[in-house]
Amino acid sequence: MKSILKRPDRFTRIVVLVWVIAGVVVLTTGFRALTAMGLLSFGGSASPGLCRAITLPAPGDLAYEAKNKTLFIASNPANGKGAIYALANGQSKPVKLAGTPADFHPGAISIGYDAGGEPNLAVIDHKASGAVATGLYGVDYDGGSARLSYQSTTQGGLARRGQGIVAMGNGRFYLSANPVSSDLMAWADRWFLLGRAHLLFFNGTMFMDAVAGISDPSGVAASADGQYLYVLSRNERRVIAFRREIFTGTLTELDSLSLPMRPERISVDANNVLWVAGVDRIPALGGGSRVVRAFLGADGVPQSQETVYAGDAVEGATAAVKAENRLFIGSATGDTLLDCEVK
Predict the structure, then answer these.
(1) Which of 12, 79, 292, 320 would staple 277 via disulfide (CB 3.0–4.6 Å)?
(2) How far is CA 158 from CA 214, 267, 315, in A?
């Protein structure tokens, strides 16, 4: 007799379909997580030129004040008070600056200019209590040496997990942050790439939500004319370009460029070249530091990138800034500021 195969009933077909969809979701999420951690990355080595190491505790972020040719350094050692250092052009050793509070732990910094051209320094300050504040400091030069003067402090629920900052002058700044109150949910957002973090704009009076739905935004920078903003997505390994409305601060997404590492911080030099620092893999898995520069098109969108530095002279690079013909590379977890020649 000829056997007749019974067709699966509707319930069985639904169960099979659910399992197939679940499998696709798991595989896709797993691939994205492996990529984010850097397990699928294979790095080489590169150097821009001769480099010298400057010993400094945890130089995690850098900002260059071009008018007075001074590099500002955020130092935040894990077992002590943080500080801001200044390295003027021609100096060999950074100088620790006074004017910061007793409970001071700078995570990210940025230089902006007021309407009159006076520089100011914006700082994301991670307090010992776990709170996050954004401090603004005036920058004066007394006899050629930089000096900080306190201006204001801003706090808000949306900015409780601030990561990157760019100062726009006159008390305004953009801040990348995850506003969730739960540490567990913040962890899930980062490692499962849920994309629930925000880019905030402080207009001098209040925070506004400029962009929502970014996955782990680690750094932010602005073009020299303030018309474009660039935001790093650490786990997605890309830099996202936005057009900025000068008067209102609203942003329009343009495009993005993939990066060969987990980006931490971004800066823009005088020629509107982007400099991005990061690591090939998450620190727990080892892997070297990497700095790339990305070139912009006439429309402000990053078109291409090249690796300028790749190695382990700096442990876990978190910042890179081009200052004149020098490239400075810092790390929030190491004790070395690398000073390299660069074209």
Answers:
(1) 320
(2) 14, 24, 31
329 three-state secondary structure: strand
Domain spans of the chain, in order of start: 41-341
Pairwise CA distance, residues 98 & 95, whole Å: 10
CATH class of 41-341: mainly beta
Nearest to 335 by CA among 117, 85, 165: 85
pLDDT digits (tens, 9 = 90+) for 242-284: 999 998 999 999 999 999 999 999 999 999 999 999 998 665 4
d(CA 135, CA 125): 7
13 Cβ contact partners less than 8 Å away, ≥ 6 residues apart: none
CB 70 within 8 A of CB 119: no
Amino acid identity for residue 171 in this structure: G
Burial 20-35 (b: 16+ CB within 10 A, else e): eeeeeeeeeeeeeeeb
Q: What is the DSSP string of 41-86?
A: -----B-SS-EEEEE-S-EEEEEEETTTTEEEEEE--TTS--EEEE
